[in-house]
Design brief:
Length: 526
């Protein structure tokens, strides 16, 4: 039987006790009761006589609060340790599955000269063996075997990160799914770059990063992949429990985002004086069904009926300057979706009813600070922050910035300025949490936000598109054919996902005229 490594448990001080299976604690008092005695009396925090006399002064209250804070910190540390242990166990399971598969193949007589048919039959036999051992469907067992083979083979770095507790199983599945579409050398590079800061990203944020890397590093141009995929557009009906069903449309990303944007705009256009207990999501679903079935909305709601022909979709596209000019085909970014091909972005920018400059040369461009002259951020500053933040800046929150509030980190009433170094997007829930709880936040250079939890844990969230200003000298273009310096449009560049630095992108939007990046708002009719 193969040796099994010891799990990396790290018990918090005074917060865990091991009891043999079927056994009882030696002391009849609960663990919490004994911990109270240890903290209060043995450590001298509270004089035992005071407690016996029923004294209720500040000392016991302070000791109780300190005890709770210490216990909470221990419990959170134990939870983190248990999570790392679970991840370690999942990595060990993958290693054991691959080891067992190889051993099973040898028992079946599979060798280097075995045919593909014999290898496939041996694998199917092992999948059945594993499924009956774990009491899971063969489909689940087959996925475990396939994942273990990838992790023990080309994706060993991901397996090691899982064993170290740096990534969760959600990160691993996204890595396996996305890298399997690449040639081996490109997949290795994507894995290396993505794992650099994977430990600080939630599984959903990690998946978004992988998708951006995929579009930038894929050997086949995005335009040709899109042309092939668009031929598969369709409508799908999927039954759901309780008399419900899912109706899905598979279509171009910009059209899908426009559909959702228009439905949300129509849902918000209802008569405010008319009682309506439906949520925004329910109103959006009802509006979509009404438009598809009868082509009109509820005539009893005058506001909504009038808005049918008036409300159009508004989508946001971030286009790199050179892509907008047609010099390169670097992907653009569709807000609410992710990377889209440059040709589609240029088409959206060309048909946009309005383009508005957001960032140009730092000496002549839009203002990014209003200081103490205005509480509300102007359109240029708000647009810049929406692009920079991308999402709610609370740790782990994925709510898009366009659905979040723009919050003064240091309150305006306490002297906080209206500028990029004191503003960030927070969803409504976390916007309310910040002033009404023990969470504290401060800005750091580069758009980084440092959060401190009520128990003192420090976490940092990074902007989705950190802008780095470029001086005139460094913004100069590469020499032309004759050796002269070729002029280059001033821009704001962001650190690039590509490790070689060859795919630097300018992340600014809404340009007038459209020689810089553009945030386009194409209208979409009903």
């Amino acid at each position: 039987m193969p040796a099994v490594a010891t799990p990396p448990l790290e018990w918090g001080h005074g917060a865990f006790e091991v009891v043999p299976a079927g056994g009882w604690l030696g002391d009849e008092r609960s663990l919490d009761e004994r911990l109270v005695d240890e903290w209060l009396f043995d450590d001298g925090l509270v004089d035992e006589g005071l407690v016996d006399d029923g004294c209720h002064d500040a000392a016991p209250v302070a000791a109780s609060r300190q005890r709770d804070e210490t216990a909470l910190d221990d419990e959170l540390a134990l939870l983190a340790s248990l999570e790392r242990t679970i991840r370690w166990a999942q990595a060990e399971q993958c290693r054991l599955i691959e080891s067992a598969r190889a051993r099973h193949a040898r028992i079946e007589g599979i060798g280097e000269v075995s045919t593909a048919t014999r290898r496939e039959l041996a694998t199917r036999s092992f999948v059945a063996e594993l499924a009956t051992t774990l009491v899971v469907p063969e489909q689940v067992a087959g996925r475990l075997v396939a994942d273990a083979g990838q992790l023990a083979g080309p994706r060993t770095a991901t397996l090691e990160a899982l064993a170290a507790g740096e990534v969760a199983i959600g990160h691993v599945r996204s890595m396996l799914e996305i890298t399997q579409t690449f040639p081996a050398d490109v997949a290795d590079e994507v894995e290396r770059v993505a794992l650099v800061d994977a430990a600080s990203r939630t599984s959903s944020a990690f998946r978004r990063r992988l998708q951006r890397l995929r579009e930038r590093l894929h050997p086949e141009p995005l335009e040709s992949r899109r042309a092939r995929a668009v031929a598969e557009r369709r409508v799908v009906l999927e039954p759901a429990p309780d008399g419900m069903a899912w109706l899905s449309l598979f279509l171009e990303a910009e059209r899908a985002v426009s559909v959702v944007a228009r439905l949300e705009a129509l849902a918000a256009a209802s008569d405010p004086d008319r009682p309506d207990s439906r949520t925004t999501a329910q109103r959006s679903a009802d509006i979509a069904a009404d438009l598809l079935l009868v082509g009109a909305l509820d005539g009893a709601d005058g506001h909504l009926a009038a808005a049918t022909g008036r409300v159009t979709a508004r989508v946001t596209v971030t286009v790199p300057v050179l892509s907008l000019l047609g010099v390169t085909d670097e992907p653009a970014e569709l807000d609410g979706y992710g990377p889209i091909d440059a040709e589609t972005a240029r088409r959206l920018a060309g048909h946009a009813p309005s383009l508005r400059r957001l960032l140009v040369h730092p000496e002549t461009g839009a203002a990014l600070s209003y200081g103490r002259t205005s509480y509300r951020a102007g359109a240029d500053l708000a647009g810049y922050l929406r692009v920079r933040d991308g999402r709610c800046r609370f740790p782990g929150c994925a709510r898009p910035a366009h659905r979040a509030d723009l919050d003064h980190t240091t309150d305006w009433a306490r002297g906080g300025a209206t500028d990029a170094d004191n503003l960030a997007h927070l969803c409504r829930s976390h916007h309310r949490l910040k002033p009404e709880s023990g969470w504290r936040v401060a800005h750091e250079p580069g758009g980084v936000m440092r959060w401190t939890s009520p128990v003192g844990h420090v976490l940092r969230t990074h902007p989705e598109r950190p802008f780095v200003s470029v001086s005139r000298r460094s913004a100069a273009a590469a020499p032309g054919p004759g050796g002269e310096a070729r002029p280059r449009p001033p821009s704001y560049l962001t650190p690039n996902d590509h490790p070689s630095g060859l795919c630097e992108r300018s992340c600014t939007v809404e340009v007038e005229p459209p020689w810089l990046h553009a945030r386009a708002h194409p209208g979409a009719s009903g």
